[in-house]
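step: validate -> pass
step: tokenize input -> pass
step: predict -> running
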Amino acid sequence: MSPIKTIIFDLGGVLIDWNPEYVFLKEFRGNREKMNWFLNEICAWDWNMNQDAGYPLAQATEDRVALFPEHEELIRMYYGRWEEMLGYTHNDTLEILESVVNNPNYNVYALTNWSGETFPVALQKFPWLQWFEGILVSGNEGMRKPHKEIYELLLSRYNIIPHEAVFIDDSLKNVEGSQAVGIQGIHFTSAQNLKTDLEKLGINL
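step: predict -> pass
step: emit ->
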């Protein structure tokens, strides 16, 4: 097995906490059942992922309002108050990132499913995002994980050799997508498990 030279991180769920609950649990007065219904049926995950692939936020909002006019106020909150959904840094994972960034043996990149319209908010809130040698944002490219095109774009843009790279993501589907193009994958479940998995690959932390 070739030594790892490139480490690629997902952002949301691995390094950054993001959750619509921070807005909508208050709006539903703590009623988690009603909130979950809204987030599963009205502003559903599949709908949000479409914006991660580059669909305009304003148009996505109007599309949804047209479908569910009785929920217009809540629908407009989804992107109108998106910044409130952006939580904290996962500091235990950040320590791992800092360790590999400071090691000259590794090139470190990020590959994220994220709207190109909202990503500048994250760049401003989390200065450590500047540590990466490059960040590929799905919404800026018009494609998203787990489709193979986005991994192939990452490889070509940064001249990464697939079998010398490892990709870390909290979504198993996204990890499998990276493996389909020859990149080794780690399914992120915790910082401690990530540290163990990286060390098994010979990555010194």
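step: describe -> The chain has two domains: 6-17+88-200, 19-86.
step: cleanup -> pass
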